Amino acid sequence: MRPARHGLWLLLLWALAACSPPPLYQQQSYVFGTLVEVSVYGVPEAQARQAISAVLARFDDLHRTLHAWQPSELSRLNAALAQGKRTAVSPELAAMLRDAQALSNQTGGLFNPAIGGLIALWGFQADTPQARVPDAGAIRDWVSKHPRMADLHIENDTVWSDNPAVQLDLGGYAKGRALDDAVRILKAQGIQNALVNIGGNVIALGAHGDRPWRVGIQHPRQPGTLATLDLHDGEAIGTSGDYQRFFEVAGRRYSHLIDPRNGWPASAIQSVTVLVAGDRAGTRSDALSKPLFIDGVAQLANHAARLGVADYLAVDAAGKIHVSPAMKARLR
Hints:
Layout: H1 2-19, E1 24-31, E2 34-41, H2 45-66, H3 73-82, E3 87-88, H4 91-106, H5 116-121, H6 136-144, E4 152-155, E5 158-161, H7 174-188, E6 194-198, E7 201-205, E8 213-218, E9 225-231, E10 235-241, E11 246-249, E12 252-255, E13 269-277, H8 281-295, H9 300-307, E14 311-316, E15 321-323, H10 325-328
Antiparallel strand pairs: 1-2, 2-6, 3-5, 4-5, 6-7, 7-10, 8-9, 10-13, 11-12, 13-14, 14-15
Helix pairs in contact: 2-7, 7-8, 8-9
């Protein structure tokens, strides 16, 4: 009888093992000034850890290349631009600058990485934002110089500008680019199912077993989420909000999302989230959320349509939620 019971026990163990779900491995880090989490599903632990390590190493590389106020390839380029000099840059940085130029042109200049000088004036090129509103005259002076991505010239990986006011800050581009790079690296490592979250900018690869990856949209004023939605393979969400980098003076909130038309932080929206699929979904979701945030809710639907963004959710300054029909069908 004992051998029979022992055999039954082994059979039960085998059955339980056969029914157990594939493993989910997650790792967190702190890059781009925010929390990063990479989740990999359905592969052995060693493979998952190797893939995640390669992704986080790439994030560190991008952080060192694109940092706007610490020594980096971008900060060296900015110093040269301020002096009117031509500077050789890496082919990778040249390609990113061309991409950022195209996105800026697509958004009518509302996505404008050339206003790094304004961002610095407001004190947001620092690990901790200053709690001081700049002099209005200094703001007007920066705006009058009209720094634009169109002022940037890129030829054979040499960069220069006719406008010395151009100072590059790719903070509104780097996280999205990192998401796309993460997908490329994960696929090269044989990963078919993963989720990458960089401070609320998220991209999905494959699925979480027999269901899509489920993510939450952060409430801009309260703990927790506004809603959740399922992300399918290749989809990304990008969020721009006034709750991530900001300071308050006399009860008024000033965020890092500055309107290049007047030099002041945009204030008509608390947050906007867009869902994008297809080629370069991460980059586009990151960049295209910025002009929608800056332009406010009055033109939200028309502006989103011009940018080809069908899925969006915005919370205006009064806390009212605005959801596109396509996004409403996706939300839980």
